[in-house]
Specification:
mainly alpha
Amino acid sequence: MTSRNWVKFFISTLLLGGLTTGIVGFIVRWSEFKPFFTDFNLVEIVAILFWLLGVGFIFSLLSQAGFFAYLTIHRFGLGIFKTAKLWNTVQLVLIAVVLFDLVYLRYEVFAEESESLLPYIGLALLVFIPGLVVAYFKSQQTNKTTFIPALFFMVVATVIEWIPILRANEQSWVYLMIFPLLVCNAYQLLMLPKYNEKSLKERESFERRMKGKSNKVKQKPSNA
């Protein structure tokens, strides 16, 4: 990817994270923010919006760091396990372990006496189902072999990025963070090939222009 397209990719993901957090923040924390809208306190509304955008930028940076870490780990995994089939099997096992831990460990730590397991399962499905959808579109965009790596990234990487809030177990923050992470992760996964393709075309165009200029210089008659 060219540096210019990398900057575009970075900024678009950053803005997407900020915008998503802004929207989700007003929804999940509406009970806190409603009085400012009722009184039409414009200063407070704008301050909250900028605060949510800032928080969203942080979530986006976490997402981008996780994405580029995954690209490295994916190459590393292919190198260790030699075949994509074996590496995909390992990824499926890790997906199952992460989802199980997301349900069981959180239930063991945070569940009150006689509390149902269903809300904890629902939270895992909140990650797993979008992961399946994104992985399906990724496989349609490229080929079927990308389904499991895409699902692995959408589930495992998202949960790892989500850990600081999961430990705090503050419900509004749990939902405030997960949606921007899912959106940013899905965007990066699906848009990276397009930015790479665009960079390749730009390089080819640049090389053609440079070759054309070089040929003109060679064909120019000497004044000597």
